[in-house]
Amino acid sequence: MNSLTVSMIVRDDAAFLASCLESVRRLAREIVIADTGSKDSSIEIARQFNARILRIPWNNDFAEARNLALSEARGDWILSLDADEQLDGTAARCVPALLGNPQVMGYQVTIRNYLLGSNERMWDQAPKANDSLLASAAPYPAFVEHEEVRLFRRVPGVYFMGRVHESVGPSIRELHGQIGKANFCVHNFGFVANQATKDRKNLLYREIGLKKLAEQPGDWQAHFELGLLELEQFKNLAEAHRLFGCACALNPHAAVAWFFLGLASFGLGLFEEALKTLRKAESCGHKTSLVAETRGDAYYNLEQFDDAHAAYEVALKRDPHNGSAQAKLGLALVRSGFPDKGLARLKAYLAAAPQVPELHEGLILSYASLGRIREAAEAADQKLRFIPNLYAGDYLRAASLWAQVPDLTHAAQILKEGLKTHPGNEDLQRALWEATQASPAVLLQSS
Q1: Which of 133, 265, 299, 409 could form a disulfide with 304 if both were Cys (CB 3.0 to 4.6 A apart)?
Q2: Could you tell me if residue 75 is inside a domain?
Q3: Is 255 within the bounds of a domain?
Q4: What is the pTM for the complete model shown?
Q5: CATH (domain of 119)
Q6: What is the pLDDT of residues 316-362, one digit of tens each?
Q7: According to the 3-state scheme, what is the secondary structure of the chain?
């Protein structure tokens, strides 16, 4: 017998739930949903899919809630999902064979976390371009991946552990069970939810993370998880730095904790400290492109441009497609006294990938640092042409460069274009007014 139960905890997830349940309808023998107090239509939606619904208390403990749902499951195997997740057609083909493997107690499943922008970073990863494996994910340009044990046998002794970032993995390892690698993925839309939803979740995770830390003060992972939240969601660099420092003290071999300590140190302007901790991360095995790139950033801010250039070269050896490192390498070469070489690199990179904003930035800054303002202004125009969804500041900077050329007519045209994208923006309006005051003919010439 290899029947499958989909097990979930839900609260006010009506916006996502139907899509999630539709994606597992043909795969699961049963769906068990533990509702922690929904006030929207989540329960009605679950009933449409013949889900078995449990009403459970919420005690700020994800593991407790998941284990309550787990206790009611009847299938031989459990697939644990969140309401803002979906499966694609690959899972229906792959899962039956996975359930038939008698050697495995659980499977690490790849989670694709979709992002709103192709230049967003999460954790220590650069995003991957969306390959449209799932139609409903098509609007999102990129994703980053992580792995969790989501598919596992329903056997005594296998249960979720941890108030937050809960997992059954530790309990399987305690039983010396084998954990395999699944050949399907889960599509997660939590990072593209509206801001109010994300803010609510982040506050909840912080509250639970603090409780977890109080209960497990010697757990480096608890410090690390809360540090990530403070760094990436709350931008609280000082607290993140403290938490990562505690994680490293508790587990000196935790390479990823050393990396994020270096990242927090860099954000606080502690560049020498950042270099030390980033080297420690690499010595512990965390030899990623982003580690080398961040080392380059620290050297650059210390005006050690030759060392910055060397670090960016390492970053590109590790990931030749790292557009951010490409841009910084070109700029570092320019600042090192090799302007022709740096500009040539940037132009070559841009010719191959004109859609990468950082490369345009590198070229603009390189020309500006050399005092070649017209060329910087022309490079800024290129960015406006090639990159969608620009900030108001991109238009302001381009207009400012053209004003220095000086070409106030073109500057005003850029500001008007900016106001089409950002109507009512006070900075753009003020800059346009200043341009017309400097040269009253500008407004008519640029109409």
Answers
A1: 299
A2: yes
A3: no
A4: 0.89
A5: 3.90.550.10
A6: 999 999 999 999 999 999 999 999 999 999 999 999 999 899 999 99
A7: CCCEEEEEEECCCHHHHHHHHHHHCCCCCEEEEEECCCCCCHHHHHHHCCCEEEECCCCCCHHHHHHHHHHCCCCCEEEECCCCEECCHHHHHHHHHHHCCCCCCEEEEEEEEEECCCCCCECCECCEECCCCCHHHCCCCEEEEEEEEEEEECCCCCCCECCCCCECHHHHHHCCCCEEEEEEEEEECHHHCCHHHHHHHHHHHHHHHHHHHHHCCCCHHHHHHHHHHHHHCCCCHHHHHHHHHHHHHHCCCCHHHHHHHHHHHHHCCCHHHHHHHHHHHHHCCCCCHHHHHHHHHHHHHCCCHHHHHHHHHHHHHHCCCCHHHHHHHHHHHHHCCCHHHHHHHHHHHHHHCCCCHHHHHHHHHHHHHCCCHHHHHHHHHHHHHHCCCCCHHHHHHHHHHHHHCCCHHHHHHHHHHHHHHCCCCHHHHHHHHHHHHHCCHHHHHCC
